[in-house]
Amino acid sequence: MSVVRHGFLGALAPGHRDRLLTFAREACFPAETRVFEEAGAADRFWLIRSGLVALDIHVPGRRAAVVETLGEGDLLGWSWMFEPYRWHLGARCHAAVTAYEFDAEPVRLACAEDPAFGLAVTRCVAEVIARRLKATRTRLLDLYGFPGGGTP
Amino acid sequence: MTGCERDSADAVIDKDGMDALITILAARGRTVVGPTVRDGAIILAEISGGAELPYGWGVELEAGRYRLVARDDGAAFAHSAGPQSWKTFLHPPRVREWSADRDADGTIVVTADDTPVPAYAFLGVRPCDLRAIAVQDRVLTGGRYGDSAYRRRRDGAFLVAVECTEPGATCFCVSMETGPAVGPGYDLALTEVLDGDGHRFLVRAGSGEGAAVLAELPSRAADSATRSAARDRVAEAADRMGRTMPLVDLRTLMRETLDAERWNDVTSRCLTCGNCTMVCPTCFCTTVEDVTDLTGDHAERWRHWESCFDRDFTHVPTGPVRDSPRSRYRQWATHKLGTWYDQFGSSGCVGCGRCIVWCPVGIDITEEAHALNRERGRSTAQEAG
Amino acid sequence: MTVPVPYRVVAHRVDTPDTATIVLEPADAALPPFAPGQFAMVYAFGVGDIPLSVCDIDGPRLAHTVRTVGAVSGALHDVRIGRTVGVRGPFGTGWELSEAEGRDLVVVAGGIGLAPLRPLVLAALATPERYRRLNVLIGGRTPDDLLYCGEPWQAAAGVRVTVDRAGPAWTGEVGLVTTLIDRADFEPPRTAAFICGPEPMIRATAADLVHRGVDPDRIRVSLERTMHCGTGHCGHCQLGPLLLCRDGPVVGWTRAEPLLMVREL
Ligand SMILES: Cc1cc2nc3c(=O)[nH]c(=O)nc-3n(C[C@H](O)[C@H](O)[C@H](O)COP(=O)(O)OP(=O)(O)OC[C@H]3O[C@@H](n4cnc5c(N)ncnc54)[C@H](O)[C@@H]3O)c2cc1C
Ligand code: SF4
Ligand code: SF4
Question: Where does the record place the 4Fe-4S ferredoxin-type domain (chain B) (predicted)?
Fold first, then answer.
């Protein structure tokens, strides 16, 4: 398998990276596929190798609102790591997507059995969450918005 | 001219000579501005004769306090900085920069302001203020773009400096290395001497025009007694400074104390009134104002002094950058004592003490610098311990 | 003190609901040439003048993209073709693209910050042999707020665009502009970066690039402060030791970072 150069995997030490990849299988999604739905069981996760995935939230009476897009090298899904293992967003492929797909259960087990591996994977996931949180908070500032709020 | 032989480098004049100096400068087409007593203060105003000089007046200065006091010795220049400085004349509070006219098809024609400016002669420029003029020269004409409003006034100005023999309680020119002896940049420099040999002024020329004026003055050759009396009085003045700055590199002190607790202390007292910036002889900041006449086809650009203590000074569309009074006092002090070096290669403070005297609550820049230095010392000690 | 030079408005294009681009031609003599990143003080008759970056330099012609936020920007946004405005300049530092020869280029723009970067990208596209890969990353508020959409250089430069918020019609990316850095193609130690946008966006972007190994000395950012004169005399644009109209608006990150970290400096 060719290995993703940067992003999530790039942050793992080579030993841990190879270990994690032993759980991976290749997956392809045609454009417009919904990979998972809000509140569904978070029993898998993906590392995107190509294509774009939009994370969205269902708003009654509106088409799903896209809150973030993920692309090459990004981790798709982290709800598998924390109880209650439910997706809190939906995911839809913008265009055809190739990815490494992982079942959550064996990875969680491996993490529990080997604390060093577990810590390394958890730290990488936490870093992803922290970055997304930071980016989201920055977007909340509405930096490019009209000074003082609202549109002129 | 007395006609006697003398050293062209210096000469001695008496009070009549001072009168003659004013007359000669006026005869050369100059507007003579000097110190004079008005409304309980020694101010700078146009004078037409020596009698208008503050003979017999001195001042008592303290933080937030200014008082005129009569002197028995009749000295003319035994006072220190008053409420104004020469920037009032060289960098006036309000000037028109240009005007613009719009014709029927919307074309605009812009004309730089060329209202004639007076050719000034400043009489009684103290050494600190002479340095302040040099500092403003650097700011307003020393960069890539010259400020023509300033340059036109400055180029024509004739400077008669007077060395300091009677420093005020708020003076600290020794710390800032600007006085009490006169530095370069004058046309004529005077030192007032009062002793058993009479009331007289030692005069030196510092420029061609200064020498020409000196040659026209009724004077006598300088004698060694007058020279040494002048030297001694200036040297004694250096020992009688009312204030000092801490003996450290102030630029580094400012850079290293941006987060100091002391800024909170000073801003609990500061009213952000901006008086300190208005009286400071080097503060140069301005804002602009655009006005149109009733036809709407004639517009003018005016600029006027503005203070960094104004909240709107740093207005950007999202609001003021320096919103808190703390950040505004800090900006002023660190600019004067620190970042001025980065921007213009010298200190922005010349030690005249005006900001101390004219602060309504008596905030003292030297005291603040000492406090910052102590606080820095404490935190360095803590880190080391 | 400098005096505005008359320029005629020869074109006017509405870019977004609050932004327009005006193209100016000297009525008589032109000002000295502008470099990408430099700015002009543009005068709306009787209203005032404001700093505006040049977004296009075409011989003596200048273009400015103006966002309406107040009196002067509003007047310039609404100016009609054929009218005259006053221009002073060129002022400030430029991007100094030539310093980046032989490097990967990462250009990151947020909102109106794309305006000063546009001539930089055009210059890089004009001499592709001098640089390695060109990455242009653009963040906007919503798809409606994006500037210069469909201009040929955007395709030529392979721009990547993301917006903070999008409606259902948007098929592009959603997220902070920093997320685009993940997808950009550059080798950090051999990269030169150019950033303009709101200050928090500049800080986040530069920090991210440094974290990835881009040399802070190779990152240049463009900063905004109040400016009345453009000539270093009014005192308003101070950022600690810098007078941004003279020592900026484009400043190296090594210089800018410690200053931006001091609150209300
Ligand atoms: C280097 C540089 C490049 C820029 N390039 C661009 C660009 O390409 N495109 C663009 O759209 N914008 C640009 N800007 C921002 C633009 O200059 C401001 O949006 C513009 O100055 C706002 O002016 P205004 O009159 O429309 O708004 P206002 O908010 O009314 O402010 C106008 C100016 O007047 C002053 N001012 C306003 N109100 C007050 C007050 N109450 N007290 C004191 N002063 C006040 C401020 O100095 C302010 O900058 C740039 C800014 C800088 C510094
Ligand atoms: S800061 Fe104060 S003491 Fe220093 S030059 Fe200005 S007014 Fe004088
Ligand atoms: S230091 Fe004094 S003079 Fe200066 S703004 Fe504060 S209160 Fe006013």
Answer: 259-291, 340-368
